[in-house]
Amino acid sequence: CILSSSLPYLLSLLLSLTFLITIIQFTYTTNGQMYGLLKRTAAKCSHIAQVYSLGRSTEGRDLLAIEFSRNPGQHELMEPEIKLVGNMHGNEVLGRQLLIYLAQYLCSEYTLGNERVQALVNSTRIHILASMNPDGYELAAAEGPLMNGWTNGRGNAQNIDLNRNFPDLTSVLYRNRRSRHYRTDHIPIPDSFWFGKVAPETYAMMKWIRSIPFVQSASLHGGELVISYPFDFSRHPQEERMFSATPDELAFKHLARTYADSHATMSNNDTDRCGASFYRNGGIINGALWYSFAGGE
Fold first, then answer.
1. Spans of the chain below 50 pLDDT
2. 189 near 167, Cβ under 8 Å?
3. Using CA atoms in the order 26, 27, 30, 36, what is the torsion angle rounded to 10 degrees?
4. What is the Cα–Cα distance from 227 to 211, expressed in whole angstroms?
5. Are 117 and 110 in contact (CB under 8 A)?
6. pLDDT score, position 280
7. Would you state the pLDDT for residue 1?
8. Are 252 and 286 in contact (CB under 8 A)?
9. Domains, the chain, ranges and CATH?
10. What pLDDT was estimated at residue 17?
11. Which among 3, 144, 146, 170 is most buried, taking Cβ atoms within 10 Å?
């Protein structure tokens, strides 16, 4: 089934990048370099790729995405739409770089005749946003790794944590469960959300999500070696750590487990960790059980 296998395989390609030193230059990129790499990649593989803008950041930087499919720019019936997002927190750069490399990898391997990559691109529409927070990255990069505190550059230029700035639809769902018939998808955004401070990056993401019928999504962060899956907000708001399953618990757990089991160290206990250890859970965890928060993407 393409729908159930595309995202784990797509993410597993990130694990293969260490073997491609002759193809990809492994170095951190500035925002300008990132834009140039994505545009050159799309130009090199124009038959399967294109770049497009979601909008602008607070300071006017482009939120540039690259798409891969057999017919770029076209949504086709029964073709799964998948999005990968990096650098939501500006000072978490590993996901940003991995997604830049992934874009180059998909282009190169498709051209070289990699049958698995060709099958993936020909059957799936893949959208990659390497940096959702280019302003935060700019701040963190300017300070450098020695001077940078863990919060410097985490937020956008307005110091808004973008991973707390989205509508809290999980709470709406919890309230609606009291009704006999309730929706678990396409939940209307509460009017009260717009009374708060909505970052331009958040608004651009919301428009993107509304305009394309994504069926699977992953956001790459930094700091822990774990796959976190929904829900992120506890079904009892006073509980900071409480397992809170979605109706699609089995599917989310399968996706998380597939990636963690393919990773060299995520699911084993032989690796020294700088943070928490999740190997007892196989390298995965329900988000609300880890720590509960609302307003995530």
1. 1-4, 18, 21-22
2. yes
3. -30
4. 27
5. yes
6. 79
7. 38
8. no
9. 1-160+197-223 (3.40.630.10), 162-196+225-297 (no CATH)
10. 59
11. 170
Q: What is the pLDDT of residue 22?
A: 40
pLDDT of residue 274: 61
Question: Which strands make up the sheet holding 62-68, listed edge to edge?
Answer: 49-56, 62-68, 125-129, 81-86, 214-220
Report the chain's terminal Cα–Cα distance, integer Å.
26
Query: How many residues can be counted in the chain?
Result: 297
162, two tokens: 């973008």
Closest by alpha carbon to 135, among 89, 94, 100, 98? 89
Q: Cβ(96)–Cβ(33) under 8 Å?
A: no
pLDDT digits (tens, 9 = 90+) for 98-132: 999 999 999 999 999 999 999 999 999 999 999 99
pTM score, whole prediction? 0.91
Cα dihedral 36, 37, 38, 39 sign = positive
Closest to 225 measured CA to CA, from 179, 290, 135: 290
